[in-house]
Amino acid sequence: MNIQLALLRQDNPVIEKVWVLSFEMSVYLVKISVDGKHGLVYDNHGKAMKFTSLGQIRDVFADFVIVQAELVHQSAYGEMIGAAEEPDNTMRLPIRLGQNL
After folding, report:
1. d(C-alpha 83, C-alpha 53), whole Å
2. Judging by DSSP bridges, how do beta strands 37-42 and 2-4 pair with one another?
3. Can you give 15-76 as a three-state secondary structure string?
4. How far is CA 77 from CA 16, 59, 70, 85, in A?
5. For residues 58 and 69, what is the distance between their CA atoms, to the nearest angstrom?
6. Tens of pLDDT along 42-91?
């Protein structure tokens, strides 16, 4: 599901959860949950919004009510050095975004 930021601002719903997906080279995508539906945040042109810092994301989501938010990062380090496969190397860190309940 695609969630357009402009429509999100119009509706101003309570955002149940925000996942800030961290990638290499300081690229972040934002996935949210509203009314039990999950999706990436898109711009007005139908492209997934790319952010370059957590500060930029905080600015964009400052006026939203957000119940829970976390930064999610998967490291490819083990794979790069030839280590045995790990079941899940995802790191999840709670963060503050928007106006918390």
Report:
1. 30
2. parallel
3. EEEEEEEEECCCEEEEEEEECCEEEEEECCCCCECCECCHHHHHHHCCCCEEEEEEEEEECC
4. 31, 31, 21, 11
5. 11
6. 999 999 999 999 999 999 999 999 999 999 998 765 565 666 666 677 88
